[in-house]
Amino acid sequence: MVPLNGTRGDAWLGRLHLDLRGGNGRAEARTVPRTAAYWLELGSRPARGAGAGRAGYPPRGALSAGWDHRRLCPLFAAHFGQVIGRTVIVDNRGGAGGLMGGAEVSRAAPDGATLIFHSPTSGIAGPMARRNPPYNPLRGFAPVSVLGFTPMVLSVNPKLGIATLPQLVDLLRREPGRHSYGSSGIGGVPHLSAELLKLRAGGLEATHVPYRGAAGAIQDTMAGNLTFVIDTFAPLLQLHQSGQLPAISVLDEARSPVAPEVRTAWEDGIDVITRNTNWLAAPPATPDALLAPLAAASAAVMADPGMKAELAKFAYEAVVQSRPKDARQALVAEVELWGSIIRAAGIELE
User: Fold this and answer.
1) Where does the chain show beta strands of DSSP type E?
2) Structural contact between residues 233 and 256, judged by C-beta atoms closer than 8 angstroms
3) Which of 32, 166, 172, 185 would give a disulfide with 204, using CB separation of 3.0 to 4.6 Å?
């Protein structure tokens, strides 16, 4: 156990929000939007049969989250609770693409009891694309650690007979203004990835069609209503393997082990590397004395063989060693990347 004072506890786990703390042990689930913010509460109540833990660690906390945070955040919560010996509760907060929940965490006391599970959408692009954001991506939180990342993937309308990214680029150049692509929403990582691809490929024209979540964009691409869609392998891998929606490019410098046959944009001469990176953060002004053990705990979680194996199924790469200063450096780089795309594409949200 990582030396965070506390007692071993249970957790709200499951697909989104499962409360396993009831006297009868029954789990209850409720569905929330994909862009909700997910909090982990680090409670002080021990689980059945658990011995007393070390005293002094904050009795509760919150972790806010968006990836398939629906899968990743509860999975992380389960392991995190075991590592720190605390009750871990995942709380989901929707509104403004997760920004409302993030704003609450940003305003929380810097006592190590409140954490946020961030993604580029909720932590960076969301506030940067708004005139009056609820928090600044660099000053609104104290980074704890980088948890991991998964690359963006481009899948194409199966009716077009396109097998490679160069073929898609050629089609868009030959037929400017006639094609469209879908994403899970304005200002999200898939949307910004497509805009970067258009810029880096020489100024391609393709109309963005935003959806409330990836499912609609994926379905319309399969049906032939869109030319392509960008998301992660989590929703796209099985469709690619079945031939229903072929993935033709991984927007990264290395091929993915889950689909090694899919070439990268880098291989095809287009400098586009976009990933959905997740990191753990605390409210601003949280002292280093609290950030360091939290980082050690998250590193222990991401190093767990079972955790890594589960994440690998979705082409998610765990970052095992990440200190607060490493997380800060990574955050600065992410702000520079996504901010440049937002400015170049002229994206602005209300």
Assistant:
1) 12-13, 18-19, 37-43, 87-93, 116-118, 142-151, 153-156, 180-183, 207-210, 228-231, 247-250, 275-282, 317-318
2) yes
3) 172
Residues 6+ apart with CB under 8 A from 256: 151, 153, 233, 250, 262, 315
pLDDT bracket for residue 114 (50, 70, 90): confident
Q: What are 326's two structure tokens?
A: 């490493």
Residue 90, SS3 per DSSP = strand
**Hey, what long-range contacts does 247-250 have (CB within 8 A, 24 or more apart)?**
247/153, 247/154, 247/155, 248/154, 248/155, 248/156, 248/162, 248/163, 248/164, 248/165, 248/167, 248/168, 249/153, 249/154, 249/164, 249/165, 249/168, 250/151, 250/152, 250/153, 250/154
Q: Each residue of 179-191: pLDDT tens digit?
A: 999 998 898 899 9
DSSP string, 109-120: -SSSS--EEE-H
